[in-house]
Write a structure and sequence with these properties.
Structural class of chain A: alpha+beta
Distance between the termini of chain A: 57 Å
Radius of gyration of chain A: 24 Å
CATH topology of the largest domain in chain B: Arc Repressor Mutant, subunit A
Helix content of chain A: 25-40%
Distance between the termini of chain B: 61 Å
Radius of gyration of chain B: 19 Å
Number of domains of chain B: 2
Largest sheet of chain B: none
Largest interface: A-B, 59 and 75 residues
Order of helices and strands of chain A: HHHEEEEHEEEEHHHEEEEEEEEH
Shape of chain A: globular
Oligomer: heterodimer
Number of helices of chain B: 9
Strand content of chain A: 15-25%
């Protein structure tokens, strides 16, 4: 063993020595389990209703290029019967797929339509999060580490391949996922992304209280019409919603601020102000960083007069000091900022208030961007 | 104690209890593993561990009826840490060189500084390389065991470990063969 290997081993041991999991770990896992089980009960009930109402449609999805449609996730009928399902967000459940298309279900109430000749797999290498489907115009063999690598290798020059990932109802950065309001698009090309190792279209969205990521690649000679067809297929995506009590609005109401619309707004404010977004360390605040300084930001509803003292005008907005915090009023909210340790070790930052220049950018960006 | 509602009968009468026992007995070690895989991010590590345990609990009846759930949990941890990295990657990386002091100092804090730099360097490695190094050097598994655990070939483990160590040397600014001398505080950045 080399000296570096020895030192690495010792450094790792010293770093994690004494690190302990949360004391209520069993309870936390149990809660996570309950959330998933509750959702499965809700969607299995919805799926049963669909089967009764739409037998012809269910027959249509028995074949995908001559083989049974896949459905890896089965509903857990032994889960508790608590949690009323929220109203479906889309109303096209009863509509059959277009002629020449097939419907693919995941066994949990979700489905997507594709041209019948396309290939589909849900035998993904990833254990978590759940890969709902890998869909390609060409063969979709299983194989790969954390991406559909084998399918990617066989991507026809004029073909397309896309993957739908389901993060469930609990994600670290819910405010990054825009709600699905209008038609879905392929998303911008970014990366190269880890696992895939190449640049892909990437699109994230929230639907039915669940969080999704879609990555799409096209062969070098893929025609524009194929892009339109993939987009059309994506827009048939039907999501079984979480129970109302698990929806972001309920989580927001319960005090998980990062699930509130204000968190999404503040996330965009940080971006517009060119403040580094350092994520979060829980559900109460978003962390920002400028230079070597890191701070936490969050909002509360505006009540009464502006708290704090030692106020001054920053680009026309009154910003006050309340202890070690700054607070100002914007769009009916108090926007709070407090020096805080970044959740990440890189880049290294120290808790501190932003520089006057960065604060001006923040105040201006918050004032300019309307809340949703 | 019942671990969760609605235990399937096929899991066996005491499956939930035994899983809880497993969690209680191994959670500290698994959390420390998650912490290393997550680049020492406490929140990510907690989340990773919960994801892995929840998933393992859900699959306990079919995955490890006869044995310990630990290999399965460990594999989920590795997979989930790799995927999380992909997610974080979209935020953009920060070059380590701009991030702090160099590796060496001739003062008593030198060892701490070196260790910190090494761990920060480990945190910015690609997740597969990091996972291989963690499993290989922290958990003391053989290369063959790591390969089996990660579902890849022995050659892949060897190459990932080699590249990971080379990258660590590069990031810490210490060429191969010079680590020992520097580590003893005999070096100076200048």
């Amino acid at each position: 063993m080399t000296d570096l290997e020895t030192e690495l081993r010792e450094a790792m041991r010293a770093t994690v020595a004494g690190a302990r999991p949360p004391r209520d770990l069993v309870e936390l896992v149990r809660r996570r389990r309950r959330r998933r089980s509750t959702r499965q009960v809700a969607v299995s009930a919805a799926a049963a209703a669909v089967i009764v109402a739409a037998v012809p449609a269910s027959l249509a999805l028995l074949s995908v290029g001559g083989r049974p449609a896949t459905g890896a996730r089965s509903a857990n009928s032994s889960a508790p019967a608590s949690g009323k399902p929220a109203p479906p967000t889309k109303q096209h459940e009863q509509a059959p797929p277009p002629r020449g298309w097939a419907r693919h279900r995941d066994g949990a109430g979700d489905y997507i339509d594709t041209p019948a000749a396309w290939h589909i797999s849900n035998r993904a290498a990833l254990a978590e999060p759940v890969v709902l489907w890998v869909i390609g115009t060409g063969p979709v063999p299983s194989g790969g580490g954390c991406a559909p690598t084998a399918a990617l290798r066989q991507l026809p020059a004029d073909g397309a391949l896309f993957q739908v990932i389901d993060y469930g109802g609990s994600v670290t950065d819910p405010y990054v996922f825009p709600p699905r309001r209008g038609p879905l698009a392929l998303g911008p090309i970014g990366g190269p992304y880890e696992c895939w190792g190449i640049k892909t279209h990437l699109m994230v969205f929230r639907d039915g209280g669940r969080y999704f990521q879609v990555q799409t690649v096209f062969g070098a000679k893929a025609p524009a019409s194929l892009r339109a067809e993939v987009t059309r297929s994506l827009n048939t995506l039907h999501i079984a919603p979480l129970p109302a009590g698990e929806q972001p609005a309920a989580l927001c109401q319960a005090g998980q601020w990062t699930y509130c619309p204000q968190a999404a707004w503040l996330n965009q404010v940080l971006s517009n102000a060119h403040v580094l977004n350092l994520g979060n360390q829980g559900t109460r605040a978003i962390f920002g960083g400028t230079g070597q300084r890191s701070f936490a930001l969050w909002t509360t509803t505006r009540r009464g007069s502006l708290p704090g003292n030692r106020c001054r005008s920053v680009v026309g907005t009154k910003v006050c000091r309340a202890g070690n915090r700054l607070v100002w009023s914007v769009h009916g909210l108090w926007l709070w900022l407090q020096p805080a340790l970044s959740p990440y070790s890189t880049p290294p930052t120290s808790p501190g208030l932003p520089s006057p220049r960065a604060l001006r950018r923040l105040v201006k960006a918050a004032e300019t961007l309307r809340t949703r | 104690m019942n671990f969760g509602p609605g235990r399937p009968a096929s899991a066996g009468g005491d499956a939930g209890d035994s899983f809880e026992e497993f969690v209680r007995g191994r959670s500290t070690h698994l959390f420390q593993l998650a912490l290393l895989l997550a680049g020492q991010n406490q929140a990510d590590a907690e989340d990773l561990l919960q994801v892995a345990l929840e998933r393992a609990w859900r699959r306990r009846a079919i995955r490890y009826r006869e044995g310990s759930p630990e290999p399965y949990v460990r594999r989920i941890l590795v997979n989930a840490s790799i995927d999380r990295w992909r997610w974080l990657r979209r935020r953009g990386e920060e070059p380590l060189q701009d991030c702090g002091p160099g590796p060496l100092a001739a003062d008593p804090a030198g060892a701490v500084v070196r260790r910190d730099l090494l761990m920060r360097s480990l945190a910015v490695l690609p997740p597969r390389q990091r996972a291989v190094l963690v499993l290989r050097y922290w958990e003391d598994h053989s290369e063959a065991e790591v390969a089996a655990m990660m579902g890849c070939s022995l050659g892949t483990v060897k190459s990932q470990a080699s590249r990971g160590l080379a990258r660590l040397r590069q990031l810490t600014g210490v060429p191969a063969g010079e680590w020992a001398g520097r580590a003893e505080g005999g070096g100076n950045r200048d």
